[in-house]
Amino acid sequence: MRAPVDAHEVTGDEAGVGRLAGTVARLRDEIEEARATADGRALVELAKGVLVERLRCGPAQAAEQLALLAERANITQLQLAVEIVNEVSGDELTAPPLPDGRPDATAAVRLRTAESGALHADDTQSAAQSLFAHALAPLGASAVAIWLAGADASLTLAGHAGFTPGEASRWRYVPPGVPTPARRALMGREAVWIADLHDSGLPSIGADLPGRVTVPAGTGGRITGVLEICWPSALPPQPLSVHKQVEALAELCAATLDSTATAGLADHGAAAPSELVDLADGLLDPALVLGPELSPDGTIADFRVHHVNGRFVDLAGRPRAAVAGKTLLEAYPLAASEGGLFDKVEHVHATGEAFRTEHMDLAALIDEVSLPVTAGVSITRHGVLVLVVWRVQDETARLANLLQHAQRLGRVGGFEEDQHTGAIVWNSQLHALFGREPSADPVPLGQIAAHAHPDDVPALNGFVQTVLHDHRSASAAFRLQRPDGVTRHVRVIAEPVLDSHGALLAVRGAYQDVSAQHWTEVALSATQDQLAITAQEAAEHNKLTLQLQQVIMPPTHPTLDAFGLRVAVRYRPAAQEELVGGDWYDAVVLPSKQILVSVGDITGHGIKGATGMVVLRNALRGLAATGAGPAQLLTWLNLVAHHLADTIFATAICGLYDPNTRVLRWARAGHLPPVLIRDGRGDLLPFLQGMMLGAMSEASYAEGEIVLERGDTLLLYTDGLVERRDAPLDDCLNRLCETVREPRADLDDLLDHLLAQSEADTDDDTCVVGVQLP
């Protein structure tokens, strides 16, 4: 019999277990402290490297300089190292400032220490612990999980911190298709912030931690995993700085995930590129092996065709060599359409989620003509490569489908009658045309006269005689009277099928509903009559407009010579009569002995444009008699256009020349500036402030002055002289200044030359006024 256990012995055993537990806890703390020290030491060494490069010194001098700078700044060498790294990194891994605006040095040290620990971690588990301890726990987070994305879009828990071992074990693997927050970030390829996990209805690790954010992590356009951070309570909206920190921390996970993914592929015997090529060559359908092409910023620019298999058939019939080696968008530019092949390949490459469909619209571009094809498509990711397999729809089925649509769109119904058995085949369009149920018996060709309008029966009898008895193809048009009382205009076409002895075997043909065509022809006939009347009225209207304009604005105006100033005018109406009517000019000696010169352009054409031009031109003449300056005249003219006329909008230039002082004062209302020709050089006058006439009830106008010298010429013109549809306005004005540099015999010769050399193509009126001081 076993002796009873002594109480002192039990106490001694318990004390031994306690001492062992204490030792384990102490060793764990020492390991964590050593890891943190190592992370900090890596940052200090990095800062020393920066100083070596910046100061052009050795490692020992860099260490001394770092210690000296830290002592002078009264901070630790680790804090100084973080500041140096932040200054040269230019990345987004920075801490938000304190409430008073000062940098948060402590937070910056934590973030950089977390970065160092993650980058130098031996595995993803160590990286997760470093991120949690240094960066996430200070943000209030309770746990973190780093998920590795599989080639099939599954998720494997590669690293974690803050979860119990049992919870981590239960969530070791998430199969494809399970709707978790991490999967949502993987499929959407963007961060997912969840205020309360319970309200979202999504299952995930740590269900008792409601606050949640999941961020995809990857490089080169391929997502290798997802960073998931959990908070102990509902998560309020976070500032932009926190969003950027979380995204930057997710990028830190990409390096360890990439190495884990590579190791995992090796462990599971995933296909190497050569094996993927062998797989593609073993397929009975056309297949492409694509690899990503990265732009300088690391994003996907295109996919290179690394291999095409032996069964490959190009959508446009090109040989394999015409596709192999090209990028996807080079070979198939139309694949770039939204939701097209390129988007699907990019999504599969990024997420690993396979894509398959029985019907997808593909297209090839041949001589700038799109060749559409419908095909079944399968896209899968294998490591960093993507396998695309397609199967073009069977040609017979494709043509039959095309014919069915053509018959439906053309309102055509086909038929065939066997003369020996009496069997009649109608398609569905023909039953609908006759207004009969699909189950109803077809109408034999010989009996169609019974379903026609009585007036059309003789013609149909002749049609039937030609086909059934004379054995010749024929056609006829008739009015079909359906059982529902509807009458349709129909054309029937039929041809006999004969044996080698000329005996009738069958009759094939089609009925076409031409009701729309019939009524369209009736409507067109009536419309043509109406158009003829309208065209005649329009011609008379345009002729009247042109006559009115020529009375008021003749193409040429006698040269005005007054007080030593010469004024010449050229006017060219629009080439099309219906566009005539917008431009106007004036040159007159006022009672004050000043000379008024003006140019304007009315919006609109025809009678409205011509009458509006008359209103403004006459109004300006009357207002000028008051002796007011150009700016005041345009202010008053704007009131006339806005209030006293029928919605007139116009641009204008008004100038007053004083012969005593040789000063020309001018103002503009949205018009192109005049050109001054002096000493063989043409220059634009300034763009004075001034809104177009009629746009607003109250408008003010700036006024400019220029003293004319002997030999000066000033040009006022409308936009019909210079504007081109294919050139910026500044270029058009610069060309005008170049044209006027050519010396001309006199003012009239200059204006004729400008009209002849004009390259304007707006089909607008053109008006040019030349003011010259000989």
User: According to CATH, what is the topology of the domain at 547-772?
Assistant: Phosphatase 2c, domain 1
Strand order of the largest sheet: 3-2-1-6-5-4
Give the % helix: 25-40%
Q: What is the strand content?
A: 25-35%
Q: Given the structure, what is the number of helices? A: 20
Write down the overall mean pLDDT: 79
Q: Separation of termini?
A: 144 Å
CATH architecture classification of the domain at 547-772: 4-Layer Sandwich
Per CATH, the superfamily of the domain at 547-772 is PPM-type phosphatase domain
Which ranges are low-confidence, i.e. pLDDT below 50, for 5 or more consecutive residues?
Answer: 1-10, 95-105, 261-272
What would you say about this model in short?
The protein is an alpha+beta fold and about 775 residues long.
Considering the chains and any ligands shown, give keywords for the structure:
774 residues, Beta-Lactamase, PAS, six-stranded antiparallel sheet, RNA binding, alpha+beta, disordered N terminus
Written description of the protein model:
The protein is of the alpha+beta class and 774 residues long. Among the domains are: 273-393, 2-Layer Sandwich (Beta-Lactamase); 409-513, PAS domain (Beta-Lactamase, 2-Layer Sandwich); 547-772, 4-Layer Sandwich (Phosphatase 2c, domain 1), CATH 3.60.40.10. It is built from 20 helices and 27 strands. A 6-stranded antiparallel beta sheet has the order 3-2-1-6-5-4. A 6-stranded antiparallel beta sheet has the order 17-18-27-26-23-24, with helices on one face. Strands 8-7-11-10-9 form a 5-stranded antiparallel beta sheet, with helices on both faces. Mean pLDDT is 79; it is low at 1-10, 95-105 and 261-272.
